[in-house]
Hints:
Layout: E1 8-10, E2 16-18, E3 26-32, H1 41-52, E4 57-63, H2 76-86, E5 91-92, H3 105-111, H4 113-116, E6 129-132, E7 138-142, H5 151-162
Parallel strand pairs: 3-4, 4-5
Antiparallel strand pairs: 1-2, 3-6, 6-7
Amino acid sequence: MKNIYNISVDEIGGKSKDLKDYKGKVLLIVNTASKCGFTPQFEDLEALYQDYKDKDFEILGFPSNQFQDQEPLEGEALNEFCQINYGVTFKIFDKVDVKGEKAAPLFQYLSNKDLNGKVNSTPKWNFHKFLVNKQGEVVDYFYTITNPNSNKVRTAIDKLLAK
């Protein structure tokens, strides 16, 4: 598998979304949780999204309950929490597994160098971030502790947008 474009993910409500719909955009794909010490990163992710959303950039949020049950919400409550508490306007998808045997196909691809050709980095906690170029290839990742609004992340995004 050379890119994410043949993968589909589930939107909240169960509708399937083809990732090929994001062709030509730089993506930051993040596993999220509403009851985590890093949950305030939603605010930083939204600030980043507001700065770049008109420049072929998208953030895709994937809630996961795999780290100490820190995502108890289901369905529309996931969206509502993000919008009400952090003003999130970027896309939040349905809850998924991001590691292990039941990991969603997207996270299998993102985490496994044998599949993506570039990165071996399974999420170790919530708010692990994967950077995907305009060709749908994962090119980098950022650990939970890296603020999404940091110069490191912005510089990486700027480089991909300039290509």
